[in-house]
Write a structure and sequence with these properties.
Blueprint: E1 12-15, E2 37-42, E3 62-66, E4 78-83, E5 94-100, E6 106-112, E7 119-125, E8 132-133, H1 137-140, E9 166-171, E10 177-181, E11 197-201, E12 209-210, E13 218-223, E14 229-234, E15 245-250, E16 258-261, E17 270-276, E18 283-289, E19 297-303, E20 314-316, E21 331-335, E22 340-347, E23 350-358, E24 364-370, E25 376-382, E26 402-407, E27 422-430, E28 458-465, E29 472-477, E30 482-488, E31 493-496, E32 508-511, H2 551-562, E33 567-569, E34 572-573, H3 589-594, E35 603-604, E36 609-610, H4 617-620, H5 635-642, H6 655-666, H7 685-701, E37 708-709, E38 712-713, H8 730-733, H9 804-822, E39 856-860, E40 863-867, E41 878-884, E42 896-900, E43 904-907, E44 914-923, E45 932-938
Parallel strand pairs: 26-32
Antiparallel strand pairs: 1-24, 2-3, 2-25, 3-4, 5-6, 6-7, 7-8, 9-10, 10-11, 11-12, 13-14, 14-15, 15-16, 17-18, 18-19, 19-20, 21-22, 22-23, 23-24, 26-29, 27-28, 27-30, 30-31, 33-34, 35-36, 37-38, 39-40, 40-43, 41-42, 41-44, 44-45
């Protein structure tokens, strides 16, 4: 069938670098083509991110074959494979992501037939016959089937923009199909859309299983000659969410993920559409694209023999002067050789099919191969057989739910680290949220985890011992995003991975050391490493426990016990530091002070944390050497470990308290440790209202003579309020005379306020979405805290607590506190009782606890709270809670009072005084645990009020 098209005249353009126009030979690139070209017509890519084009709706077009591309345009002949009018039509929808079989007889493709619908995978012969549907995510996306008999238990959502999607299929050499899908979908931490990751299935669509554990979207799998899968991987483990969509390889069974290019580069932001050059196997062709863009940009050839982050590895067909440039309209490259390619690019108002050739002088000759003025043309593929990649035997055993890691010598790659100084490895999981977000979050996070530091709730899985030769052999649960941290004897993180790996089920993955040069030669071991001669270790809980690390409920109590008396409590603000738990708009006072960017935007000064906002990508994207970030470089850690900065003998932390603080620092400063929340979400609007009212009152109190910027109110510090304990608010104490009642500190001085001096999450006052050079951010040298001296004459605005402005400000803060407690956040009193359980993905069922679970029960104003915590042994399990009349009561359905995925349960039943008995049974979807029992004594009921002290939660 002849397709009616409008073909533009063939154009050849030479981008010269020292080549005179008359030297151009009068021949067309198309003359080198020796086969038909398969391609698609479709509406051009839409969306605001490279990963959300699948949600868009731009119907029309289909899959076609240009039979004679080497002929002049007026002689071109076309054949329809499938479109809305073909014999085997699926209708007027979107036909996209084609992949040609190795024998060039069949085509895999995706089709979406309605605006809010799913994308499914189909196959058809190149002759337009034999159409068959392979997947239907609308019907079968939950659960994934798994070989080996292991059931997949998880909870998922479609994302915020529409249904689940099956995308980017590619033929594997053994007949199976690799593709990306949202079946094991998390939700993107910075945008809340569904996450599509690598899966494999049989040719008929059965036996679908994931070979990736990513919490962010993956792109465009294709095959290399040696059988590895080449793909784009987006990740941000404690680094920018914007710029790391890099090039990776993985075996088809999910083993041996390895970064190929740009995993620590700011530009290009994304490496997409990658294909191995079969004729020149040292090279890969890719599209370099922006993240906040459609998946179009420039076309680049990458020399894999060069360094993994070396700009010299790139030849850019679209921009030879700026090889890392990632802006443009080009996409969908296909290599004929390393110097001759097909691709799609803008031609007038539509994308057309192009050819390009790299000339001997590195100039580029481009030629329009085919264009249609009515619709865009994409995805050109030569219609001819190509070599079948190597078929590798699978190494995995999917009947197992764990894998192992063997590190031969952790010191390799870290010459600055003394041998014998690393004692343990911490094993962490980056969890992938699958539950909804309540919204209202700042800092580009759809679920507020931190002040632009870490992005997700981390699951501390435990620690393993490093042998004296630096070796370590240990078991890790499969189906999780794993990263490791090397700890010294004090528990400080010498170096942390900032990318993830997985424990492929039933396999052992070995590595030489920590960030060792993969191209370097290493000593041949005369005998196996010490760890290799032992059974693999199982991670053990850290001294403080395991699982979720939640700042307000685990760190704040330590500060309250040891620090607050001097720092924000009765004794004032030592070093100007408020470590109280007073709630701020999004966090609390102590947290904001400890994660403040005091001197530079890109580093959280007191914890040496890595700022992960987009604007500071040049800092967070790098590979840090040992001791550069986290606890080894943290002033707070020096206080914790050494009693530094004048804290000698002032307090004594337990081993558990020290380890917990260091673990928090090296987790890059999380605030919320889980995905749990309340209907209030994260934005404490009552705090913001109080701030506005206080600024208005400051004008009447005369404060604006100093706190003034250009006739407007000066920058209001977040820790001036203490909604937890209003009388301790700095805004009341600083201008209040000492010894006149209240908690006066007489700190105010007759001096203009420094704009970026004391407490800043963002030095510019806002989240920077665009990448900026680090020297464009404000810098300052931190000045030691003074209570007078040269800082100006004292100013006492409030002679005592009877001052009308003092009383008005206190009333404002008290009113805000009352309003906040009426609708609390998860980190506030009453928040636990209103908590909504968040969830993260568990590809494999969570193992039932083998150790004793510490279940407690206590009477609270909201009811009896039965508590077991969110440790790594219980997080992700469903807990069924039962109540009986006597010890050891029988577990029956009629005694069940509820189920929860939280680490606690509130029994709101009005109970008679006396003893009551509870039992908790954990369920992972396959099996149930033994009952864990506890009793509680209920005293005769008294009138209760909301507690002012947050209860222990995890």
């Amino acid at each position: 069938m002849l397709v009616a098209v409008t073909a533009l005249m063939m154009i050849t353009v030479l981008f010269c670098r020292g080549l005179a126009a008359e030297e151009v030979k009068n021949e067309y690139l198309r003359n080198s083509l020796d086969s038909p070209i398969l391609f698609t017509k479709r509406g051009n890519y839409q969306g605001i991110h490279i990963y959300d084009t699948c949600y868009q709706w731009h119907p029309g077009g289909g899959i076609y074959i240009l039979e004679n591309p080497s002929d002049p345009p007026e002689k071109h002949k076309f054949r329809v494979v499938i479109d809305e009018k073909s014999e085997n039509s699926l209708g007027k929808g979107m036909y996209f992501d084609p992949d040609l079989s190795y024998d060039a007889k069949r085509v895999l493709f995706c089709y979406k037939g309605e605006p809010k619908g799913s994308s499914s995978i189909y196959e058809i012969g190149v002759d337009g016959k034999g159409l068959r549907r392979i997947t239907n995510p609308r019907e079968d996306y939950l659960p994934c089937e798994k070989d080996g008999g292991v059931k997949s238990v998880y909870h998922g959502r479609h994302g915020s923009l529409g249904a689940a999607q099956d995308l980017t299929p590619a033929y594997l050499p053994d007949g199976k199909i690799v593709f990306t899908t949202m079946r094991h979908n998390g939700l993107v931490p910075c945008n809340n859309t569904g996450v599509a990751i690598l899966h494999v299935m049989d040719s008929d669509g059965s036996n679908i299983y994931p070979i990736s554990v990513n919490s962010e979207t993956e792109f465009d799998p294709s095959l290399m000659l040696d059988g590895r899968i080449l793909y784009g991987r987006w990740e941000y483990v404690d680094k920018t969410a914007l710029t790391i969509q890099s090039l990776w390889t993985v075996n088809f069974d999910g083993t041996m993920e390895e970064a190929v290019y740009a995993n620590n580069m700011v530009f290009p932001e994304a490496v997409l559409d990658s294909r191995h050059v079969f004729s020149d196997p040292d090279y890969v062709i890719s599209t370099f694209s922006k993240h906040n863009s459609t998946p179009r940009g420039t076309i680049a050839m990458i020399d894999m023999r060069m360094g993994k982050n070396d700009p010299k590895a790139v030849f850019n067909f679209s921009n030879q002067k700026h090889p890392l440039r990632d802006t443009g309209e080009a996409c969908d490259p296909y290599p004929i050789t390393k110097d001759l390619i097909l691709f799609s690019d803008r031609n007038g108002r539509k994308n057309a099919l192009f050819m390009a050739k790299r000339n001997s002088d590195d100039s580029v000759t481009r030629e329009v191969l085919f264009a249609d003025t009515n619709i865009d043309c994409h995805s050109p593929i030569p219609l001819k057989p190509r070599p079948v990649p190597e078929i590798k035997a699978s190494q995995v055993d999917r009947s197992k739910d764990y894998g192992c890691f063997l590190i031969q010598n952790v010191y390799e790659g870290m010459p600055e680290v003394p041998k014998g100084s690393i004692k343990r490895l911490r094993v962490l999981e980056e969890t992938s949220r699958v539950s909804r977000s309540p919204g209202g979050g700042p800092f580009n996070q759809t679920f507020t985890i931190s002040a632009a530091l870490c992005w997700v709730a981390k699951n501390y899985l435990g620690e393993v011992t490093v042998e004296k030769d630096g070796s370590c052999y240990f078991e890790v649960p499969a189906g999780k995003m794993i990263f490791l941290q090397a700890l010294d004897a004090e528990g400080r993180c010498v170096r942390s991975m900032r990318t993830f790996i997985q424990a492929a089920p039933g396999t052992t993955r070995g590595c030489v050391g920590c960030h060792e040069d993969k191209k370097a030669s290493f000593p041949v071991l005369i005998k196996p490493a010490i760890a290799q001669r032992k059974k693999p270790q199982k991670p053990k809980d850290e001294s403080w426990g395991s699982g979720a690390l939640d700042y307000p409920t685990m760190l704040q109590p330590i500060l309250d016990k040891h620090c607050v008396n001097c720092h924000g409590g009765e004794k004032g603000f030592a070093a100007g530091l408020d470590l109280t738990g007073g709630w701020t708009q999004f966090f609390n006072n102590s947290y904001e002070n400890l994660v403040s960017r005091r001197e530079v935007q890109y580093k959280s000064t007191l914890i040496a944390g890595v700022c992960s906002m987009n604007g500071t990508s040049f800092y967070s994207a790098q590979i840090f050497p040992a001791y550069a970030i986290g606890s080894p470089a943290s002033p707070l850690a020096k206080v914790v470990v050494d009693g530094d900065l004048g804290h000698e003998n002032k307090f004594k932390l337990s081993r558990e308290e020290k380890d917990l603080i260091l673990a928090w620092i090296d987790g890059n400063g999380p605030y919320h440790g889980t995905w749990n929340y309340t209907a209030r979400a994260f934005d404490l609007g009552d705090w913001a209202t109080a701030k506005k009212q206080l600024i208005a009152e400051m004008k009447f109190a005369g404060c604006m003579e100093c706190h003034n910027t250009g006739g407007r109110g000066g920058r209001f510090e977040n820790d001036w309020l203490n909604l937890e304990k209003p009388e301790l608010s700095r805004i009341l104490r600083a201008p209040l005379a000492k010894g006149k009642g209240g908690h006066g500190e007489a700190l105010c001085r007759n001096n203009k306020v420094d704009g970026f001096r004391r407490l800043r999450i963002f030095s510019t006052g806002r989240y920077e979405h665009a990448v900026k050079h680090l020297n464009s951010f404000p810098k300052q040298k931190w000045r030691k805290w003074d209570k007078g001296e040269d800082s100006g004459d004292p100013v006492i605005s409030f002679a005592d607590t009877k001052n009308m402005h003092y009383k008005k400000m206190l009333e404002i803060i008290q009113s805000a506190r009352k309003a906040a407690l009426a609708n609390p956040r998860i980190d506030m009193p009453g928040g636990k009782a209103r908590a909504i359980a968040g969830r993260h993905r568990n590809i494999y069922p969570v193992r039932l606890p083998k150790e004793t679970v510490n279940v407690t029960a206590e009477k609270t104003p909201e009811g009896v709270m039965v508590h077991w915590g969110m440790t790594t042994h219980t997080w992700g399990l469903v807990a069924d809670v039962y109540r009986g009349a006597k010890p050891g009561f029988e577990i029956t359905e009629d005694k069940k009072i509820g189920s929860t995925e939280l680490g606690w349960y509130y029994d709101e039943t009005k109970l008679e005084s006396g003893k009551h008995y509870y039992a908790v049974v954990f369920d992972n979807g396959d099996v149930r645990s033994k009952p864990y029992r506890i009793d509680v004594k209920v005293e005769p009921e008294k009138t209760a009020s909301i507690s002012d002290t947050a209860s222990r939660t995890r």
